[in-house]
Specification:
By secondary structure, the chain is an alpha+beta fold. Helices cover 25% and strands 31% of the residues.
């Protein structure tokens, strides 16, 4: 985009990330394709992350959105956003489709990310190497809004609940430091116990997972939550029979979300998405430290250093209606997600735009109009709106999700 050009809204061409845990149908169906994908499709990325930047058609040729923004960040991002985030789009927007559980993981804060990225660069580990934890120097607070029924495991349960359930299952002799934790139920001792359980390379991990599954089979669940815990232990053991991460449902909260419900995860909170499809919005980062339930690199020492062992965990976010959109408010400086439902004869109008935006059409069809121009928008399509587009209107019958940088 040249400075002399009229401000324009662009359709995005986004990259699909193929991971083993992905769905073969959800993203394809969202994009209007009825047949299943030949391989699992886990994520659709919308943004400028260097691993998979979106592309736009500009000046008669296709360009990387990352490069287009770098040509004129003030005009495209807005002056306040460009200055604050060093001329970069600060968020990454994803469609996430989990047919199988993801790895148990956490994300670093800003200081940890800078330190880890610098260290791995110093070791000359290539950015695309599977041995890297840090793909960039940014933190990764994230929000997930469910599009289907969704299950997540996130944050440590109260220690008294952990101890009581382990005793009920008669697992005290198979989990290290349990006596210490029972006598002194503190975050410090929980850290020691969890570190020893996950961190040692047992020769008999398969045996220990087998003992856990047998104890589950012999014990009657006492409530709905315990039924959920048992079900996920059995399912994880079937997929990863040699992985101590199978014990994680004993320690972490398992939560169910319905479509439209959302949750926010801060740095240092251990979590995994178990099943379901949703929209994930995060700071523009791909830094992940894994502790298990994966065939990718696991870094237990690095993970333990960053984890929060207190009650920090999943924070459910209830959207608040304001001026035609349902806003999911969080503490993140990089992003704000909202849902927009456009009905016939009820257009969505925005003026005085304060930052660049990405809008994704989830359902229906519509059109967006600005100045003397317009674009048709249908299910699965996404658009990028530069700051320089001062006002726009969306008409039709459609459900949209909008991501902006909060500047108020």
């Amino acid at each position: 985009m040249n400075k002399s050009d009229e401000p324009r809204i662009f359709k995005l061409r986004n990259q699909i990330r193929n991971y083993d845990w992905g769905s073969k149908t959800f993203i394809f169906n969202l994009l209007g394709r009825e047949e299943p994908s030949p391989e699992p499709q886990a994520e659709l990325w919308m943004g400028t992350h260097t691993q998979a930047p979106s592309r736009i058609l500009s000046n008669g040729r296709e360009e990387s959105l990352l490069e287009v923004i770098r040509q004129n960040p003030m005009r495209i991002l807005g002056e306040s956003v460009a200055r604050k985030f060093e001329n970069e789009l600060p968020f990454l927007f994803k469609v996430l489709a989990a047919a199988h559980p993801l790895s148990i993981q956490a994300h670093p804060n800003k200081a940890q990310a800078r330190k880890g990225f610098k260290l791995e660069n110093k070791k000359n580990i290539p950015l695309n190497s599977p041995e890297r934890n840090y793909k960039d120097n940014n933190h990764k607070p994230e929000l997930l809004c469910a599009l289907t029924n969704f299950e997540v495991m996130c944050g440590f349960q109260p220690i008294k609940n952990i101890v009581e359930r382990i005793k009920y299952l008669q697992l005290e002799d198979h989990i290290p430091r349990m006596k210490e934790l029972e006598i002194d139920p503190t975050a410090k001792n929980l850290k020691k116990m969890f570190s020893d359980l996950m961190g040692k390379h047992y020769d008999d991990q398969t045996k220990k997972v087998g003992i856990l599954v047998n104890k589950i089979a012999e014990s009657k669940p006492r409530d709905e939550n315990e039924t959920l815990i048992y079900r996920w232990i059995v399912r994880l053991a079937a997929i990863y029979p040699k992985d101590m991460g199978v014990f994680s449902p004993l320690f972490l909260n398992i939560m169910k979300l319905k479509p439209g419900e959302a949750f926010f995860i801060e740095a240092g909170v251990l979590h995994t998405y178990l099943s379901g499809c949703g929209l994930e919005i995060m700071a523009n980062s791909d830094n992940v430290l894994r502790g298990g339930l994966t065939h990718k690199k696991v870094d237990i020492p690095g993970l333990i250093k960053m984890l929060k062992f207190d009650k920090a965990g999943l924070k459910k976010i209830q959207p608040k209606f304001n001026k035609g959109e349902y806003i999911y408010q969080t503490s993140a400086e990089e992003f704000q997600l909202s849902k927009i439902i456009v009905k016939d004869n009820e257009p969505f109008v925005r003026s005085n735009i304060s930052s660049a935006e990405i809008i994704l059409c989830i359902e229906g069809t519509g059109s967006i109009t600005w100045s003397d121009s317009s674009l048709e928008l249908k299910q699965g399509e996404s658009i990028f709106i530069p700051f320089a587009v001062s006002e726009y209107s969306i008409e039709g019958s459609t459900e949209l999700f909008r991501v902006v940088v909060p500047t108020g």
